[in-house]
Amino acid sequence: MQSNKILAVLRHGEADFNFSNDFERQLNSNGKSQLIKLRELLKRSNLRPEKILSSAAVRTTQTAEIIAEIFDDVTVEFDRTIYEAEPGVILNSIADTDPLVNTLLLVGHNPGVSALVSSIADQGYLSMQPGMLVILEVHVNDWKHLGMGTGIVREVLQ
């Protein structure tokens, strides 16, 4: 029997520019403020991730930590392969998620997260801005089956 899962995809908050080492870029004050506002919206929503899967870059780590503060008992996992990854690589990381997890929050980077959301929803290209959260209802019972056209966009928060 097929069930619906929720995949929430969050592009990291606005970050400072340091081209000497992109991986080490940190959130700037606007990015932190933006995520605190998003966190307040999430407090009033029904979204309760059981797991947060995040790129291991500094700005995504900071983003995941700010958001995770409001969720009790959420598992947070940092995965270096998500950093600047294409959708196929991100899907491989998601596929390792326990099928018992029904709500997953992914924190990543563009262009990968925009391409991922656009592929899953298969409703045209959605360009995600820094700090934008897209909530997808996905029609799979195992994260390994997530792919093109398996979900629909339910909500966009920013």
The main pleated sheet reads as: 6 strands, mixed
CATH top level class name: Alpha Beta
Number of domains: 1
- What name does CATH use for the topology? Rossmann fold
Structural class, from helix and strand content? alpha/beta
Order of helices and strands: EHEHEHEHEE
Beta fraction of the residues?
15-25%
What are the low-pLDDT stretches, counting only 5+ consecutive residues below 50?
Answer: none
Overall pLDDT: 95
CATH architecture group name: 3-Layer(aba) Sandwich
Helix content: 25-40%
Report the span from N to C terminus.
Answer: 34 Å
Instruction: Give the full name of the CATH homologous superfamily.
Output: Phosphoglycerate mutase-like
- The main sheet orders its strands as 3-2-4-1-5-6
How large is the count of helical segments?
Answer: 4
Number of beta-strand segments: 6
What's the gyration radius in Å?
14 Å
Structure, described:
This is Phosphohistidine phosphatase. By secondary structure, the chain is α/β, with parallel strands linked by helices. The protein has a single domain (5-17, 24-157), classed as Rossmann fold (3-Layer(aba) Sandwich). 28% of the residues lie in helices and 23% in strands. It contains four helices and six strands; from the N terminus they run βαβαβαβαββ. Strand 2, helix 2 (58-68) and strand 3 (75-79) form a beta-alpha-beta unit. Helix 3 packs across helix 4 (112-121). It is globular. The termini are far apart.
